[in-house]
Every structure is written in structure tokens, then in C-alpha cells.
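Field: COMPLEX_INPUT
Field: COMPONENT_COUNT = two
Field: RESIDUE_TOTAL = 406
Field: MODE = joint
Values follow.
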Amino acid sequence: MGTVFSFDIACDGGPRVRSAIEAAVASLHTADAVFSTYRPDSQLSRLARGEVDLARCDADVAEVLRLCERARERTDGWFSAGYAGGLDPTGLVKGWAVERAARMISEAGARGVCVNGGGDIQLLGEPEPGQPWRVGIAHPLRPGELATVVEGADELAVATSGTAERGCHVLDPRSGRPPVDAAASVTVLARSLADADAWATAAFAMGTRARHWLDAQAGVEGFAVTADGGTWRTTRFDRVSAVRCS
Amino acid sequence: MLTRNPLRRTVLGAAATVSGIVLLLALKPHSAPAPALAHATAPTSPPTSSAGAPSTGAPSKGGTAPAKRTGTVTGSTVQTDYGPVQVQATFANGRITGVTALQTPSDNPRDQEIASYAVPQLTREAIAAQSAHIDAVSGASYTSAGYIQSLQSALDRAGG
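Field: COMPLEX_OUTPUT
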């Protein structure tokens, strides 16, 4: 699974920010080495096979599993890292790693930070004084087109879940199958990308129920393109939308 | 904002891991030109498989005004888990007007199928991103690291 991480940093080039960027890149490599389900020697793979116990793993493993458990509770079980006895936090770990990387750079003094990990984005600060970040939501059914544009500053995370290039990768934890009435893509906005990533995964698995569920969540907005090309959005979504029509 | 070009970024370091994570580390000048962050390659060296070595990791030219290039620029060939990717970008007055894939993974029908729609999608996204003043695009993840790296190297050679 190849994923591109891009960093867009607004700063005056201070040495603290430079070293924070290097540390942030290193943290993504480390997260991949620790959490990859594709690597048989990752701590997560070894933990899943029972070869190592949690106490002997990196502290990040306990942190991510704690976030997974919280996401499971807050999504009424629609987000699950434990399907079929396995251990797979991939619905959350990329967002968590990207958010951590972004915050490392922001805390070093960067005015604006945008880290995009394969389409899941954590924004902090602002790109230029008084300007919001602008994020296009790729249209899942019309390649190259944007379904909408959102904007925000300070703290905004954007995560999209959908049928990816290499097929559906989200299963309904209740049936173990791809969601029956799945949207083409569901985008979730929150302040934290670890949350938004998990919420987007859960909302995609929920199918049509996602809209009402997302509406009921505090500090979360949602937007979806349905399989027939229609769209829906949560009632307060327009507060972050940069598109003022429909 | 009018002069911002989200794709005119300088790749500072790229590395791939066994599972194919490719890091694109980019800086662009916003309001104030940022000093170059040269040689900021990823601190952890990539394991043996897959490539994405920082062939595009040329030292930044941050702070210099991009040339208003017209013509075509060929990007580096980037090795991905699925095969080599190389693109050529066409510029008119310093803006991308088209991207042509010179090489895409084609070892099997599935790779060919993915390339057949992923490459046009990425090309439109690249062009849309610079015209819509979008800082980033959110969408279901794609395995197109090679395309972006090769495009980035073309942008670097174009003077971005």
C-alpha cells in the first residue's frame, strides 16, 4: 500500500521548524515500522500473533489501541480494530500519525501546517495571515473533479473514506462484508485527524445511517457523495464549506 | 493568494519503506520566502525494497521567483512497488497545462487498469489544484506516489 505524505509549512524557516519537520518525517517512518499490518515483523503484527505483550511494545501501541477503544465506544461499535479476532487499527493509525506529525511542526513555531497523508489531512494555523486553508474534496465518481471545497484555520482535520483505487477496504463489522448501502465516499471534518479518520471509517461502514449519526456528534461535520452521484451534508456543514450554493 | 501555486513545491526528501510508504516533504514560500531546507532527507533510511530514493530531492530553490517557463519538462523515473512511473509536464507561462505519463506500471492487467484511470485523475487534480487555489485534496487513498514524485521532479526542473 503506497501512500504519499505531503507537508505544506508556512513559516519563516527557523531552525526549530526544520528540525521538527525532520522529526515529523521520522515519526511517520517509525509509525509505519511499528503499526504496519503488511510487515510480519512490525510490533503490531507480533502483538496480533501473541508473540509479544502490550507492555513490551512501544508506548505508541498502547496509545493507539486506547484511541481505537474510545472510537469503538463513541461509534457504537461501527469503528472496530478487532474484527474477526485480528488486530487492525489501520482505520485510525494513519490519521493519528499524520496529526502527530503536524502538531510536532506546529509546536516548533510554524505559523501554518498542512500534512496530507494519502488524502487524510490535518491543518493547523493558517497558510497566510488571515487566510484559511482550502481543501478540495475529490469527487469519487468523476475523476479529477472536486465534489466541494471546505476551508478553515486553527485546527481542522479532513478525512475521506471510500472505495479506493484497489477496491473496498472497509467492512461492516457486524456482517464482515462491504457495506450494502455504502456511499461512494464519506468525508468527515473534526479538529483531530485521529478522530476524523476513525469517524470516516465508521460512517462509511454505516451506509445511509451515517448522516444522522454524524449530525448528532459534537464538533464533527460530514459530507458524502452517494453511489448514485447525489450528495448529502450535515446540517452545520455549510459553516466550513467554501461553496455557497446548494 | 493569487500568486500561490500549490504544486510548485520543492521536494526535499523522499523515501519508501517495505510497505511502500513514500514521503514527500515539501516546502513552499508563502508570504515570506522560506530559506532552503536542503538535504532534509528522511532520517530513517528506506529498507531495500521499493525505491522512491530521493532522486527528486534536489536542493531547494526556495525564495527565488519561479521562471515563467513554457515547454515540456520530463520528470525522473520513480520506482514504485508496482513498477516504474515517469511523467512529462507541459507548461505555458509557468503554469501546468498538461501531464503525460511516459511510464506506468503494466506488469499485469490490474496494474494497467488502475493506471488507465489513476493517471488521468491525477493529471486533472494537478491542473485543478493550481487553478482552484486549493492547498490539499482529500479523497480515498491512492497508490500514486510515483506519479507525484515524478511530477514534482519535473516541477523542480522547471524552476519551481
